[in-house]
Amino acid sequence: MNVDGVPYRSIWVNDDGISIDVIDQTRLPHEFRILNLRTLEDARDAISNMVVRGAPLIGATAAYGFYLAMLRDAANAAIDSAYESLYAARPTAVNLRWALDRTRASLAGLEPDERAACALETARDIAELDVDINQQIGRHGLQLINNIAAHKAPGEVINILTHCNAGWLATVDWGTATAPIYMAFNSGIPIHVWVDETRPRNQGASLTAWELGHHGVPHSLIADNTGGHLMQHGQVDLCLVGSDRTTRSGDVCNKIGTYLKALAAKDNALPFYVCLPSSTIDWTIHDGLNQVPIEQRDGSEVSQITGRLPDGRIESVSIVPPGTRVANYAFDVTPARLVTGLITERGIVAASESALTRAFPEQATGPAV
Ligand code: MRU
């Protein structure tokens, strides 16, 4: 998508043809800085420090990281250690495992001197596939928005609430939850987006608001606790969120706070849709509440807040009494019963095992319960 009129993706091969460039998301919205990744460790650290984040982009970065590892050492042992090192970078987004499995499989049967080129090719394919899938998600979600528009007065604004950043910065391009939003906006449908700030790391305030602003999509930033009130007062028509891992039964793990939005949407009979590529579905598990590992991050993300001072310096300040104990769960699970539907590349699917395996029959044979 565009940054000040210039089209960008969130990850690409540098002009040197060897190293990888990413947008440093820890600097946004204050500074647009591109970071160059040259080694496996660079890629792993970029994922774990959230320079790059969002399930699909974590997957794509891991694939490029695998390639960077193979550039330096493509022996059999290096394949295993690259896999393990990248896999440990963040625990929740299942796209990481999906991308690593795919890259490792692509290397099977190759000689060491063929492996780096093959891993690069696979990483490029994964990135291109992500862009293509997000466009398909966008088109399916757009139909939903068109249906809502059809029940409104001509020109009446459609209000969409989103949580965290499931935008183009969280993917290679377009985003998942934002793909229908960008397509609706591009086709002239009057939309307005309520952007949850998404404490503790504020991905909504820092990233979603930045993205939408740079594309010109009308939006308002809200404190995380505001959505329920807006829903009660008819100011939300549709909730669109992303996912880090969705089980084969349709339980959705996403950024902490998603569950509370789904509860409020249910209480107000509002549609709550989750937009996700099928690489986000963990076909090996049924029970989101008990089988998805929930990442716990450093307490400083909760006890401190970072912002820009009037003189331009970026500082973090403490917002708690010294010594306060903090718990920092990064994700929660929204049970399938609260999800109106899953917007995938194969269409809008009910959040249930039967509907998911009808849409993805190649996954019909699941693990034993
Ligand atoms: O901790 P993050 O910023 O990686 O969490 C991101 C989210 O929860 C997104 O909603 C999710 O990855 C979907 S991204 C298309």
Bound molecules: 5-S-methyl-1-O-phosphono-5-thio-D-ribulose
Gap between N and C termini, in Å?
42 Å
CATH class of the largest domain: Alpha Beta
How would you sum up the major sheet?
A: 7 strands, mixed
Q: Report the mean per-residue pLDDT as an integer.
A: 97
Please describe the structure with a list of short key phrases separated by commas or semicolons.
18 strands; Four Helix Bundle (Hemerythrin (Met), subunit A); 369 residues; 4-stranded mixed beta sheet; 7-stranded mixed beta sheet; alpha/beta; Rossmann fold; 2 domains; binds 5-S-methyl-1-O-phosphono-5-thio-D-ribulose
Structure notes:
With 369 residues, this protein is an alpha/beta fold. The chain has two domains: 2-128, Four Helix Bundle (Hemerythrin (Met), subunit A); 137-359, 3-Layer(aba) Sandwich (Rossmann fold). It has twelve helices and 18 strands. The strands form five sheets. Strands 8-7-6-9-12-17-18 form a seven-stranded mixed sheet, sandwiched between helices. The chain has a four-stranded mixed sheet with strand order 13-10-11-16, covered by helices on one side. The protein has a three-stranded antiparallel sheet with strand order 3-4-5, covered by helices on one side. Helix 7 links the parallel strand 7 (191-196) and strand 8. Helix 2 (55-72) runs parallel beside helix 4 (95-106), helix 4 (95-106) packs antiparallel against helix 5 and helix 5 (112-150) packs across helix 6 (178-186). The radius of gyration is 20 Å and the shape is globular. The mean pLDDT is 97. The chain binds 5-S-methyl-1-O-phosphono-5-thio-D-ribulose. The site of 5-S-methyl-1-O-phosphono-5-thio-D-ribulose has 18 residues, from helix 2 and strand 11.
